[in-house]
Each structure stands twice: as C-alpha cells, then as structure tokens.
Amino acid sequence: MxxxxxxxxxxxxxxxTTSTFDQRMAVxxxxxxxxxxxxxxxxxxxxxxxxETYTQDVLEDRIPKFFEQLGPKLGSVCxxxxxxxxxxxxxxxxxxKAGARHVTVGLFQDLAEARRWLGPxxxxxxxxEGA
Length: 131
Hints:
Elements: E1 3-7, E2 10-14, H1 21-33, E3 41-46, H2 56-70, E4 74-81, H3 88-100, E5 104-108, H4 111-130
Parallel strand pairs: 2-3, 3-4, 4-5
Antiparallel strand pairs: 1-2
C-alpha cells in the first residue's frame, strides 16, 4: 500500500505496486489534510517498487494531479528513488513537470545518496523554522 510519514521537514512517501491510482490519490489527499505534514515539506518519494509502464498521455494526466492534490504541502525540492527497472519516461516526465512548477527533482537509486542530496535543503528548512 502507498504510505507516508513525516520526519521533521521531510515527507517520506512510499509508492508500491499494489496501490491503484485511486488509492494513491486518497493517500495524497490525506497528506494534504494532515496537520502533521508541514507546508512546503521536502519530499522523498520512494518509487523503487513501481514497475508499471505508462503511456505519455497517462503520465501527462496523472502527474499534474499529484501536484494539485498535495498543494501547499509540497515544497520546492523532491528526491525520487527509482530502480533500474523503473519506467525512465515516467521518472523523467515527473522531473520535467515538477520543474515547470518550480520544484527541483533529483533522481536516485540509492536512499543514502538521496538523503545526502536533500541534506542542505533540510538544514535550510530547519533554519527557516527557527527564525
């Protein structure tokens, strides 16, 4: 099942292969409504289990819905974990669509590398909260 948890300014979202699009949208809605998820959260999206291949038309429809559903909970930085078996079109199109919304997306296959990349952004977010 697709799930999420909050770790400070970081929103950790895990997308799996058993969730339908509607189930994923319900999780995104729950994130948007969750008072424990800070506004402008840094996103670490673990999509390594996703193996589906989508057409560009489907991706063009679904990716904007992801951003719209999360609304102000989504910050300007996202690390996306993908696997060697992940659909490269989906990851790249997500990166492009995010950029159009002023969200920087890094693509990674290693969790530790993704966390290192997010580190400076997390420190900036923590500093802003303490200001």
